[in-house]
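USER: Note each token:
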Amino acid sequence: MRTGLGLRACKGGAVAVGLRIEQGEPRLLVSAFLKTHEDGDRLSLEPYRVAAEMAAGARGVTADGVKAAVAEGRRQQDRLATEALQRLLDGLADAERKRVVAGLLVNRAGWITDLLSYSLAFADHVPVAEGLAVRDAFRFAFVRCGMEAVELDEKSLPATAPAILDRSKAEIDATLKALGAEAGKPWRKEQKLACLAAWMAAAGPNSELR
């Protein structure tokens, strides 16, 4: 019995939905938000916005100083993502933890490799960098927590799910709606996508998901 944990990263953390497959049907385990920032701490919440403000504003701010600030914010995000993920795993029953597979939602912004340079060059796109940093923090957390993980393209996921899950789109949508009623609010697009990612991770051989 595999347990799937779907994650959709955004500024400040990730929407997380966990489920297991029982007799071919998904059973909801958890719907939560895993924070990668400390309340009131902008550096862990939005390191690239802080960096952009530092570079544009104060006198005496050096490039090394900006890089150091971002590095510290990213270290905090890695730590907090690991701690949040471990707490979630600790809350699962032993049987549910045995084969947890994470499904991390990704998109086509993965070509951006230097997030600091990108943020400083394109101020309007800083939120993109913040989301990518959180995604990287959970990649770090997967390793630290000893988790198996697959990455799933968010845009194509609804189209590829029927083949992996052997269900029609209408059946999948109905199941997601029912799971959402069980989870309670919030159950928006982000939760639905994380739930579908968890379902795919739990149900599909990893070779088919990559």
Summary: Confidence is low (pLDDT under 50) at residues 206-210. The chain has ten helices and five strands.
